[in-house]
Write a structure and sequence with these properties.
This protein is an alpha+beta fold. The protein contains four helices and eight strands; from the N terminus they run βββαααβββββα. The longest helix has 10 residues. It is globular.
Length: 206
C-alpha cells in the first residue's frame, strides 16, 4: 500500500519500468523468472475453507505460454505491480498520455448494459467498467469512493487506485477466491488502507 502527497505533476524520480519486460528484481526477461520466487497457488473449498493445490512453482506460469495474452496469465512481482499502478496514478507518463489513462479508467457502460450484465444481481449498481478496470460510480462502502478503480484477480489478488487520495493498494495472496465477490481478507485490507492515510497537517505547514 502506498500513499503519496498530492502534486500537480509527476515526481522527478525515474519512472518505473514497464511490467512484463523484466522480473522486477533480477532484471532478467520475464520468460526466464527465478522459479524459487514463485509461490504455490491454491484453490479454496467454499464450504470448509480448506486449501487444495492448484499450481506449483514449476507449473503453467513457469514457462512462456504458447500464445501470449495481454489480458490474462501475466507474471509479475510485488515490485512491478505497484510500479504499474503508480504509473497510472501519475497520469501514465512516459508510456501513456494522461487522456489515455483518463479514458481507460472511465465508466463506459450504459444503464441498459448494466441492467442486463454482471456476475451477480446489482453487480453494476455502484460501479462501472473501463478498459479492463472496474470503476466505482457510487460510494456504498467506506473503502470504495467514487473514482476509485482497479482489478479483482480471482486467483487471489486485488488492486485499487484512488486518484483523489493518491492511494495505491495491492494485495497479493496465493489462494483463489470462491466467488466473484472479494473475500473478507480483501475487504479488510481495503478497509484498513484508508484509516492508514494520515491527513494531519505537518508541523512545517503551520
Amino acid at each position: 500500500m502506498r500513499k503519496a502527497p498530492w502534486s500537480p505533476a509527476p515526481p522527478t524520480r525515474r519512472p518505473p519500468r514497464p511490467a512484463g519486460r523484466h522480473d522486477g528484481v533480477t532484471g532478467r526477461p520475464a520468460h526466464r523468472p527465478r522459479r524459487r520466487r514463485f509461490a504455490t497457488g491454491y484453490t479454496t473449498d467454499p464450504g470448509s475453507g480448506a486449501l487444495h493445490l492448484f499450481d506449483d512453482p514449476g507449473g503453467q506460469w513457469s514457462a512462456p505460454p504458447s500464445f501470449p495474452s495481454g489480458g490474462a496469465g501475466l507474471v509479475s512481482t510485488t515490485g512491478e505491480f505497484p510500479a504499474l499502478a503508480e504509473l497510472q496514478r501519475w497520469g501514465g507518463s512516459p508510456l501513456l498520455s494522461r487522456p489515455t489513462v483518463e479514458t481507460m479508467t472511465a465508466d463506459h457502460l450504459t444503464p441498459d448494459q448494466k441492467a442486463v450484465s454482471g456476475l451477480f444481481p446489482d453487480d453494476f449498481a455502484a460501479r462501472g467498467w473501463g478498459f479492463c478496470v472496474g470503476v466505482v460510480t457510487r460510494r456504498d462502502h467506506p473503502a470504495a469512493p467514487v473514482g476509485q478503480y482497479g482489478w479483482d484477480g480471482g486467483l487471489g489478488t486485488i488492486w485499487r487506485n484512488d486518484p483523489a487520495e493518491g492511494l495505491v493498494a495491492v494485495l497479493l495472496t496465493n489462494a483463489a477466491w470462491t466467488s466473484p465477490r472479494p473475500p473478507p481478507i480483501a475487504q479488510d485490507f481495503l478497509t484498513g488502507a484508508y484509516p492508514a492515510i494520515d491527513d494531519r497537517p505537518s508541523p512545517t505547514s503551520r
